[in-house]
Design goal:
This protein is about 30% helix and about 25% strand. The chain is an alpha/beta fold and about 500 residues long. The two termini are about 50 Å apart. Bound molecules: zinc ion. Zinc ion binds next to loops.
Length: about 500
């Protein structure tokens, strides 16, 4: 991780110089005074969350229907090469955190697959996101030393620096291997990139022994230190748009904020005033690498005066099927996905549209929880699965896309009246509609049912008396789909409230 090796080819640097000189001349003429400008392009993404492979996605800001072949490191590599070629200025490639976790590969590689791709794509730096602390999660989240060791492996495997100025250990030291800021020289302009991360990680089991400082307080300490080594400072943050706005409002001396965390598609940059009333552009690239952000910045100065931000313009460029995957990166991605591309079962039918597939996936999961535990009822909210079944054949990769965490099925006793009360609130925000393996009209309010579900549901719905069944969710789902499909239960069996197969009917 060298701070000084920015990856600018001589050709690009020369192009940039020509562009800068002509701009300088134009400005000098316009202003009637000697002025100097420097352009820079920042390609940025955030919250990739393990989307190493292309995926299907509804980008609600653009269209209401699902598109497949979205994102993925191989298409992103091609787009980066195109934008680098077209750029008339030096280019830096920056990730604003949450590269790993939640993806289908997360528990298998703990982010090392993402970092390998980022190394190959030539990232210049990345901010530490809250999910970089959650490389061990679910049943494994209590082992803070293991989670922190996984983060250390991630950092050690990265050919680019990770930035975070507001987390320290018990000795007051910044996270090992992590830098508060790095300085890059672009032409004659020295730019410091300062990393800040969200406070929400402070309460994670995985961050035991780490101390989180308020990002605005940390910025007040670190911006002057960065300014001592650079002409301008750009924050690379994982604070969410609200946090980035607060950061802009409450600091002096930031020229731009490249952010993440809130998964916000800022199709147009925000411009917020800082403490001096100077505007600070804030950019964010939504989530999962469905797009790539392209932030164009122009800095200028008069004579030996201070460098100032003169202009900015950001756009989100789609990473979709029109972008051909880079074959070398695609082969690398396949190397990581191939071990999981094994058939584990089949479904008797697949719904025609995305909404239908979402509901169907919840139905299958609810049936799988019941089947695996022998509970009376299985429950699954349709917003809980991280992906949906799309093909009749089910692979381990799909199972892990739907269930990215290492978790067990939970059971809890609930009266029929309590179940009816839960259903009365359907659907609810962030949870969606609850899918039960029991028809509403068949619920006996006086009876107590043993209900099987995932841990997130017991927590979200505040269900007491939860019991860990000891059956892993992914194993439960694999066993269930192994017994479905052509030889297993029919489509009718998977409808909510239909006769769901008992454990003895769905194999071991
Ligand atoms: Zn995120």
């Amino acid at each position: 991780m060298q701070d000084s090796d920015h990856r600018l080819s001589l050709g690009r640097a020369r192009l940039a110089l020509v562009a800068a000189l002509s701009l300088t001349a134009a400005l000098a003429t316009a202003m009637g005074a000697a002025a100097e400008t420097q352009d820079l392009v920042i390609l940025h993404d955030n919250d990739l969350h393990g989307h190493l492979h292309s995926f299907c996605y509804v980008e609600t800001g653009v269209r209401s229907t699902e598109a497949c072949g979205v994102g993925g490191a191989a298409r992103r590599a091609t787009l980066i090469a195109i934008l680098r070629r077209k750029a008339r200025a030096p280019v830096l490639l920056i990730d604003a955190g949450d590269t790993s976790t939640r993806g289908p590969l997360a528990t298998r590689y703990e982010g090392l697959d993402e970092v390998a791709a980022m190394n190959a794509l030539g990232y210049d730096m990345a901010a530490v996101g809250n999910n970089e602390f959650k490389l061990r999660d679910g049943l494994d989240k209590g082992d803070a030393p293991a989670a922190q060791a996984a983060l250390q492996r991630l950092i050690a495997g990265s050919k680019f620096p990770w930035l975070c100025a507001n987390v320290t250990d018990d000795n007051g030291q910044l996270l090992a291997g992590v830098k508060p800021f790095v300085v890059r020289k672009v032409g004659r302009l020295r730019i410091a990139f300062l990393g800040l991360t969200t406070l929400k990680s402070a309460h994670y089991a995985q961050t035991k022994g780490l101390h989180f400082q308020d990002p605005v307080e940390a910025a007040a300490v670190w911006i002057p230190k960065a300014r001592a080594e650079a002409d301008v400072v750009i924050a690379v943050t994982h604070l969410g748009v609200d946090g980035d706005q607060r950061l802009a409002h409450q600091t002096h001396g930031l020229s731009a904020i490249v952010g993440g965390d809130s998964h916000t598609f800022l199709y147009q940059e925000l411009n917020e005033p800082d403490l001096d009333g100077k505007r600070v552009p804030i950019v964010q690239d939504g989530e999962f690498g469905a797009n790539l952000g392209e932030l164009k910045l122009r800095f200028s100065r008069s004579g030996d005066g201070p460098w100032m931000l003169a202009d900015s313009n950001d756009r989100l460029v789609p990473v979709n099927q029109t972008v051909r995957p880079n074959p070398r990166v695609a082969a690398m991605v396949e190397g990581y996905t191939a071990p999981l591309e094994v058939r584990v079962g089949a479904l008797p039918q697949i719904a025609a549209d995305a909404e239908g597939r979402k509901r169907q996936t919840a139905d299958v999961l609810a049936a799988a929880w019941r089947s695996a535990t022998g509970a009376d009822v299985g429950v699954e909210p349709d917003e809980a699965p991280y992906d949906a079944f799309r093909t009749l054949v089910v692979t381990r990769y799909q199972v892990r896309a739907i269930l990215p965490f290492h978790e067990d099925v939970i059971t809890a006793p609930l009266t029929g009246a309590a179940l009816q009360a839960l259903l009365a609130a359907n659907p609810r925000p962030f949870v969606g509609a609850l899918h039960l393996t029991l028809r509403t009209e068949d619920i006996d309010p006086a009876r107590t049912y043993n209900v099987a579900m995932v841990n997130a549901v017991t927590e979200l719905l505040g269900i007491a008396g939860a019991h860990d069944s000891g059956v892993e969710t992914r194993a439960a789902l694999e066993r269930f789909v192994a017994g479905t499909g052509a030889a297993g239960p029919t489509a009718t069996d998977l409808r909510p409230g239909a006769g769901v197969p008992s454990p003895s009917q769905v194999g071991p």
